Amino acid sequence: MKLQTSFLLRQFLRPEMLPSTWCAGCGLGIILNAIVQAVHFKGLDKDQVSMVSGIGCTGRMSGYVDFNTIHTTHGRAPAFATGLKMAQPEMTVIAVMGDGDAMSIGGNHLIHAMRRNIGMVAIVVNNNVYGLTGGQTSPTTPIGGHTTTAQPGSFERPLNLESLARAAGASFYARATVNHTASLIKMIERALTISGFALVEVISNCHVLYGKMNEMAEASKMIAAMDEDTQRTNPTLLRRGTLPLRLTTPSAPFWEEEPLPTEGVTEEQRTWRGVIIENKGSIDFSERYYTMLDEIKVKREESEISYG
Amino acid sequence: MAKIRRGVFEVRVYKDYCKACGLCMAWCPQDVLAEDEEGYPLTPGLSQCINCKLCERHCPDFAIEIIPPEQKEAIDV
């Protein structure tokens, strides 16, 4: 069930900041809508939720919500979110990043936040291109995708965030698109229940810079292409769940990827858009950090007494 | 299965927020919405609306809203 827009505007957003600075038809607004609804359906108090965002078009998102918000440096949203989670363990931390922000500039921070399994929800908005700076090739531009810095088509293999999440040890990974809004809300809701690091990759549209060079100049056409693409690669996705969506021209080359190990993946975890990884038994390392911090505090007090 | 209700819903477009991207018109399954000369949505087929909320879900700018008659009082506060 979708919430009424005027309720969202009144309760969770800052209407004085709207309309947003994003282009007409940008999927970031749909993702913002979904995050806010998921927070409402989980019954969270908005003063106990914080949103950390990096730089880029996605970084603007923290300005429109009425949570506790930080707009941080480029790629360092997981680092700031880690610090916030250490200081306020009971707070729900949502880190919002773009694809260039999360995977190239802040790649290390994302990997190590996943390795430590800090309790936060990271939402990576993947629109295949560096949107704010003029449409350069990003780590997730598919092979054959035309961008301003790869006019004849990119020939580099795109990064598959699912394999990275598996290797680095994130507790939860799910992939959604802005076309399938109902499942997007459900996946963010499910991610909010995880105690460790939960990663949700959302395929978004940049029809203004990426779409116009790949025969998808309209927002509706590009979002509809996500659906066609899902259905076209559906059998493969159901079997392996490893292939990223290919938002390219029909003439773009097809590339093969080695299948990920499917052991431990049950039938219900395989969705049309990828495998949902959920390690329920994984250790939340933040608990250990809190005990360590308490020990340090006690030691410091003891040393002050002995030296003082 | 519940009977589909038609024609009792109000479609409200907030023109201050709307950027005329055309997503609501692209997704409407019942031809309720049409665009005017500037690209903003109009509601010529309002009696056909079935409250599927596809336009509201896909609106990136919080600019369109379907209001069922039973919720109208709560929204107009």
Give an account of the 3D structure:
The complex is a heterodimer of chains A (308) and B (77). Chain A has a single domain, classed as Rossmann fold (3-Layer(aba) Sandwich), CATH 3.40.50. Chain A is 36% helix and 15% strand. Chain A has ten helices and eleven strands. In chain A, the strands form three sheets. In chain A, strands 2-1-3-4-8-7-11 form a seven-stranded mixed beta sheet, with helices on both faces. In chain A, strands 5-6 form a two-stranded antiparallel ribbon. In chain A, a hairpin with a 5-residue loop joins strand 5 and strand 6 (136-137). Mean pLDDT of chain A is 81; it is low at 231-243. The model of chain B has no long low-confidence stretch (mean pLDDT 85). Chain B has a single domain (14-75), classed as Alpha-Beta Plaits, CATH 3.30.70. In chain B, the strands form two sheets. Chain B has a two-stranded antiparallel sheet with strand order 1-4. Chain B is α+β, with helices and mostly antiparallel strands.
How would you sum up this structure in a few lines?
Chain A has 308 residues and is α/β, with parallel strands linked by helices. Chain A contains 10 helices and 11 strands.
Oligomer: heterodimer
Number of domains of chain B: 1
Share of residues in helices of chain B: 10-25%
- Radius of gyration computed on alpha carbons of chain A: 20 Å
Structural class category of chain A: alpha/beta
Beta-strand residue fraction of chain A: 5-15%
Q: What is the fold-level CATH name, i.e. the topology of chain A?
A: Rossmann fold
Give me the CATH architecture of chain A, please: 3-Layer(aba) Sandwich
Largest sheet of chain A: 7 strands, mixed
